[in-house]
Design goal:
Number of domains: 1
Strand content: 15-25%
CATH class: Mainly Beta
Helix content: 25-40%
Number of helices: 5
Length: 254
């Protein structure tokens, strides 16, 4: 999504403090009252649009221009009033970037990323029936559940309670793989898997990130690839990845 992340292709894939969004005592997801039909439709369109845009900027075989344009139109048309302006801002910027190839809109503090953050916060509050909160400290993920539901909108909230920037990247593991194996993946393969999950959440110390995802069944690793000694997205440290210091975990989606 952004230069300091493993996924440097899109700021939409970006969890948090959400009203009523505390995790269960067992670390599992919180179940809310449930979204409206309008919110579910917008959520599904949002996830589909993010998937298509990641593919378009990821250097692989992205969607046809007509298909992507239709998704962007639907994204705007189905946006609730509270986030209509933010969705319109993102679509305008994305169209300019697709035409020019300029990805500077992903930089920290950009209009795109601020609008994206507001939409993600809205979605986590209103879209999923399940919300999971995970916090990052300097040597561990806290609150990562053992199991999550598959193929449903899932709100993820990542809070950075450490002293350095941290990220939460979800990678689907293949048969026989263990979380530690993710550290040895070639960059392109790690990025492909992160793109597939749609989840790469990054925040500075004290910050929070929100996102809604739809995960396929399987075993997943949660990883922070940011190197120790990092002070900002633009100033990476030269130490080992935080995952090597304990910021790595595993859960099952089914």
């Amino acid at each position: 999504m952004v230069p300091a992340r493993l996924v440097a292709t899109l700021g939409v894939a970006a969890a948090f403090t959400v009203a009523g969004g505390c995790g269960d005592d067992d670390g599992g997801p919180t179940t809310s009252q449930g979204p409206t039909a309008e919110e579910l439709t917008f959520c599904a369109t949002h996830i589909d649009t993010e998937t298509a845009v990641r593919a378009a900027f990821g250097g692989g075989a992205g969607p046809a221009a007509e298909e992507l344009d239709a998704l962007l139109e639907q994204w705007v048309e189905r946006a609730p009033a509270e986030v209509q302006g933010d969705v319109e801002t993102q679509v305008e910027i994305l169209r300019d970037a697709l035409e020019s190839g300029d990805t500077s809109f992903l930089e920290q503090g950009s209009d795109y990323r601020q609008a994206n953050d507001r939409v993600d916060e809205f979605l986590v509050r209103n879209c999923p029936t399940d919300v999971v909160e995970v916090s990052g400290v300097d040597d561990a993920f806290v609150g990562l559940p053992a199991e999550l539901p598959a193929n449903v909108p899932l709100g993820v909230v990542f809070s950075n309670d450490g002293e350095e920037p941290h990220e939460l990247v979800l990678l689907r593991m293949e048969e026989g793989e263990e979380p530690a194996d993710m550290l040895d993946l070639p960059f392109a393969e790690a990025q492909r898997r992160a793109d597939a999950s749609g989840t790469s959440l990054l925040r500075e110390p004290g910050g929070t990130d929100h996102h809604v995802v739809r995960l396929e069944p399987g075993r997943y690793a949660a990883v922070c690839f940011i190197p120790a000694g990092t002070t900002s997205e633009d100033s990476l440290g030269d130490g080992p990845p935080h995952a090597a210091e304990g910021m790595i975990g595993e859960f099952t989606v089914g």
